[in-house]
Amino acid sequence: MEALKSPTVFKAQVLSDPGIKSASVVVKTEPNLEKICLRREWNNYKIPAIASSQYIRGLCDVISPNGEHRAVEADPEADSIYLVFEWMDQSLRTVPPFAFRDNADLPKVISKAVLSALALLSQLNAVHTVKAGDFGNMLSQGYNKIRAQSLPTRAPEVWQGLGCFHSSDVWSFGVTSPIFGAKDKIVETLTEAWCIAKIRRLVGPIGPPISNRDYEEEFLIAEYLESSTFEHPDTGLETPFIKVGSLREELEKLPGPKISSELLDFIGFLLVVDHGERPTASEALQHHYLTSLEAS
């Protein structure tokens, strides 16, 4: 047993199980109140379409202290359960950024897999909110009790407080750095206002937020950050808070192998600010950038 994220995620060796092809698995548990997410994940894997999808990590087993799945399911106060998932040999985070640009097909293969998973979730009227490999936070489309998604991948409509939709998942994928081989996040994990200002500069204005004092203040600060300067303490020069240009300009400036114009067009196709006009995952799968993979 090897701790991957102690005390909740572990890598374990499979000693003998003909139903598990890999020599290793991932064992996941959650302490205390967080176990509600683990149970939600387990329940979501009971949905046949999720359990059978080739684009979603497989759930191999469920383990409880007494070995009785049914008893654990019936007892919401059970101390612990353990979900056993298939082991993925490669994490995108460990792939060198340049590899995505050296291999023209790699971003296409990744895009097809992720968008296929998102298309399935759309059929279930669900959004994953965090990542396609973690269904402990999967919610119904339109969820707006709190703003879902991580700060770097949060969609404009989620920032506005309108809710998290299938289109929000598409945005989240479009700004994920591995698709184009960037080392750093497009939108850094700083303050909420900074993230909003960065999005405004990269892709254009975002509509106003819902009537919420905190959201309104964030948008006002974001507008100030985007358009204002400060006196740099080292140089004494007036320096913009937000220095970046458009998203395409920034991606074209990345060091190393150039990003293909076809991929840049595809990213622009995904990142439409108006979520009502943004393509669905199924529509994105029909984009010529991805259909060219099948033709090659």
From TrEMBL:
Residues 1-290 form the Protein kinase domain. InterPro entries: Kinase-like_dom_sf, MAPK, Prot_kinase_dom. The keyword Transferase applies. Transmembrane segments: none annotated. GO terms for molecular function: ATP binding; protein serine/threonine kinase activity. The keyword Nucleotide-binding applies. It comes from the Eukaryota. Keywords: ATP-binding, Kinase, Nucleotide-binding, Serine/threonine-protein kinase, Transferase. Signal peptide: none annotated. This is Protein kinase domain-containing protein.
